[in-house]
Amino acid sequence: MADALSDTENGRRVAESFNKQGLMATLGARLLLVAPGEVEIDLPIGPQVSQQHGFVHAGAVAAIADSACGYAALTRMPAGVGVLTAEFKINLLAPAAGDRLIARGKVVKAGRTLTLALAEVFAVRDGDEKLCAMLTATCMAVGGREGVSD
């Protein structure tokens, strides 16, 4: 967790939740930015996230995009409420290849129960970004349910 993230309640809340995700740790993903309605997640590219042609596996791309959407949605939800993805659709636009991926999630429309979010995933090579995927997600606010919290 970057120091700048701990400066806000949303930053602390999202970082604490992110750090509980075994999949993000397994992939090597890192939380870069938390702002109201926005989250950025970084994924270093290496053999552990590759598919048979050497590109980043679509599952890894979808995982960071889904998390970016979910955490962007969580920043717009009240304290004490958790977030779950109810549905997502991903478009893979180009092979994910380079030095790292950045998933930028943002809230499109926040509601009391459902929030629509969009993530764009960029492949970064030598500082140049190329859009490689877009994911839309419907995220659900969940409270008062065993095992689900912020």
TrEMBL record:
InterPro entries reported for this sequence: ACOT13 (IPR039298), HotDog_dom_sf (IPR029069), PAAI_dom (IPR003736), Thioestr_dom (IPR006683)
Alphabetized, the UniProt keywords read: Hydrolase
- Specify the Thioesterase domain's residue ranges: 53-125
Among Gene3D superfamilies, the record links this protein to: Hotdog Thioesterase (3.10.129.10)
A GO MF annotation of the entry reads: hydrolase activity
Q: Determine the domain of life of the protein's source.
A: Bacteria
Tell me which EC number(s) this protein carries: 3.1.2.-
EC main class here is: hydrolase
What protein family is recorded? Belongs to the thioesterase PaaI family.
Q: What is this protein called?
A: PaaI family thioesterase
Q: Organism, per UniProt?
A: Bosea massiliensis
